[in-house]
Amino acid sequence: MSEKIIMKNPVVEIDGDEMTRILWAEIKKELLSPYVTLLTDYYDLGLPHRDETDDKVTADAGAAIKKHRVGVKCATITPNEQRVEDYHLKQMWKSPNATIRAILDGTVFREPILVNCVRPAVRNWERPITIARHAYGDVYKAAEYRVPGAGRAELVFTDAGGTETWRETVCDFEGPGVLQGMHNKDDSIKSFAHACFRFALDKKQDLWFSTKDTISKQYDQTFKNLFQVIYETEYKSAFEQAGITYFYTLIDDAVARVIRSEGGFVWACKNYDGDVMSDMVSTAFGSLAMMTSVLVSPDGCFEYEAAHGTVTRHYYRHLKGEETSTNPIATIFAWSGALRKRGELDGDEALTRFADRLEAASLQTIESGLMTRDLAGLCEGLTPTILNTADFLRAIRARLDTQNS
Ligand code: NAP
Ligand code: MG
Q1: Is the pTM of this model over 0.85?
Q2: Nearest ligand, CA of residue 333?
Q3: Do 157 and 168 belong together in one domain?
Q4: Quick one: 319 and 402 in the same domain?
Q5: In this structure, which residue's CA is closest to atom 22 in ligand 1?
Q6: Which CATH number characterizes residue 58's domain?
Q7: Nearest residue by C-alpha to atom 38 in ligand 1
């Protein structure tokens, strides 16, 4: 076996909760530490430690990614009322992902991991579709309330000097209802656009973008126009050279075209569209456990994670001493993504190559018929052997060792 790789710079390691926390430790032990002397800046975002630190650890982890530029994150619990009770929390801490996204002001790219024995539900999809989700504003940062009864709702803008410069009636209510005010910022939309154009160039894939600008003539139109101007002034020639295209269409037209497509492109979506469409696309490609996610900030920081959550149901079975067959692939790919990016930034070819080998060994293991339960049900063309998580990781390690020798 070749010598262990020594890393030149650290990746920010963000630990998490429940079943994925268990996977995290096992992946490090079986698939990383034997091959790489891991250099990490470690933050424990397990819920008890977030509570102990009044969630300061989450902000610290975000700041560390800004410093080191590459992070890898385990899935974490976003507390709800039930979790506040179960964990005796001081308060209902915010989603760590939202906190880190706010610090990095990034765009989230979600890409399915394809294996040849799992066919997408959409038969004509041959290549992955990456969803680029704008991760700032709109309904996720809206002011809203229930309207108690009759009255007028207005949209008012007061400029920085204190002068009211805009007032428009939203609705003259005759009775109770609901009201919401959303916003976005040109700066955030522009950095979203840059992140998408750069990512598409990096991947050498077409970029699609969709909004509802025919209905939303100021709000969505702004997204459309900013993308168009940035494309024409800064990316058009690079796209032409790379042989890729930028394509804008209405969101409903985009949905229809995506279904009829062969895949193999990046689909940029507004925040809500990206939230919804990424779950649809990942499910149609096979399984949420086969979806990676990377947050890319405008200043070039990268945070890799699995798209799924902490797999609570499996964790409770694990706590009862039962064997689980939880799929570690997306978490492995979060690590390989982070190590590859670290290798690229540091000019460390050995590390980049290890990331490639780890991914190849993982996919080959599945394609040889050894897999976790979630995939066995989707698998076609071979008889799958269902392994528990630990045995599946050992099978991947055996493949890695064969490649290594
Ligand atoms: P989840 O953890 O993604 O799990 C939902 C279901 O999907 C599981 O019960 C399991 O189905 C299946 N699944 C997901 N990942 C799998 C894997 N790796 N292997 C096998 N099956 C897998 O979502 P959730 O139950 O809605 O959320 C649980 C917790 O995760 C919540 O506290 C939530 O706040 C948190 N969460 C965190 C993140 C994040 O940190 N990025 C994202 C989403 C949710 P079966 O039980 O049918 O096998
Ligand atoms: Mg969602």
Answers
A1: yes
A2: 1
A3: yes
A4: yes
A5: 289
A6: 3.40.718.10
A7: 309
